[in-house]
Amino acid sequence: MKYRQLGASDLMVSEISLGSWLTYGVGVEAEQARACLDRAFEVGINFIDTANVYGRGAAETFLGEALAGRPRTSYVLATKLFFPMSDADRGLSRAQVEKQLDASLRRLRTDHVDLYQCHRFDFDTPLEETMEALTRAVDSGKVRYIGFSEWPTDRIRAAIDMAGVARFVSSQPQYSLLWRDPEAEVIPLCAANGISQIVWSPLAQGVLTGKYLPGSPPPSGSRATSEEMGGWMDRLLADEILERVQRLKPLAAEAGLSLAQFALAWVLREPNVASAIVGASRPAQVDENAAASGTSVDPALFEEAERIVAGP
User: Which end of the chain is more exposed for a tag (fewer CB within 10 A), N or C?
Assistant: First the structure.
């Protein structure tokens, strides 16, 4: 496993990180989830990403229990806030930052998180209020560094330009061979301001593993067949997309990689990406994904892959 510096922080994070969206505490049984987490540490993954809203606290509760026996300095722990935790609790107001942070710390059984992220931008709260609240969280010692996920570029720039507040060190966008939107504005802006990308869905929710075939039903036991985990995949399961993904397999084979490893290596080719977040329901998936770290791929293969997925 290789490690990269997270923005302007002193955190060194594994190139492959373990996420918990739709999985731990929700779609994956606790015993399997714990096996995945244990295997992640065995292969060198040190970065664990979660959020308060995942299972409405269930993912954080699972991680708090599963991580309890490990030295706190042996892993980098990130969580988030914004989405509704109740009818009255949502957003990035001063009161919510304080309330949700304390609740996350209780569930995670720790006195601090290494990275506290704004899960989306809150248009109902002044940016100044949010940044001041996050700064107090850092000053209190409950948070080491702060980040954001899927913020509009103008709001990122406004936060960067604000004086006297904690500085963002991470951005968490969706980014994959099938979703390249951050390349236009977000990555250049962040790279110029000490902010790294921690990307979610680098395998397009499993589509870039190549296991979903055009014209065929999803394989039994896959994410797409799960009531808890498959609700976000309709766009990605279009036959046109699946056909293009199948055409990537020979390129991956030429690189000596599985298609999943090839897709992760493509994401990690971007210097501003510090880590690619993967989900796993079985330890074998952890092994395969972790093996993408440190791989060397001919850029010509990546260029051909980009041409294929872009279409005619």
Answer: C
Type of residue found at 147: G
Strand, coil or helix: 77: strand
Question: Rounded to whole angstroms, how far apart are CA atoms 238 and 236?
Answer: 6
Let me know if 198 is exposed, middle or buried by CB neighbors in 10 A (0-12, 13-18, 19+).
buried
Helix, strand, or coil (residue 142) = coil
pTM of this structure: 0.92
Q: Check: CB of residue 82 under 8 Å from CB of residue 90.
A: yes
Which residue spans within the chain are E strands per DSSP?
3-5, 12-14, 16-18, 47-49, 76-81, 113-118, 143-148, 168-171, 196-199, 273-278
- The answer to whether residues 107 and 145 touch, using CB atoms and an 8 Å cutoff, is no
15-50 pLDDT, tens digit per residue, is: 999 998 867 767 788 888 899 999 999 999 999 999
Written as six digits, the tokens of 294 are 């440190």
Q: How far apart are CA 59 and CA 50, in angstroms?
A: 7
Report how far residue 3's alpha carbon sits from residue 272's, in angstroms, rounded to the nearest whole number: 13
Give the residues across from 17 on adjacent strands: 277
Domains of the chain, CATH where assigned: 3-205+266-295 (3.20.20.100)
Indicate the SS3 state at residue 254.
helix
CB atoms near residue 141 (< 10 Å): 9
Structure-block tokens of residue 233? 């995949």
Q: Which residues belong to the active site?
A: 54
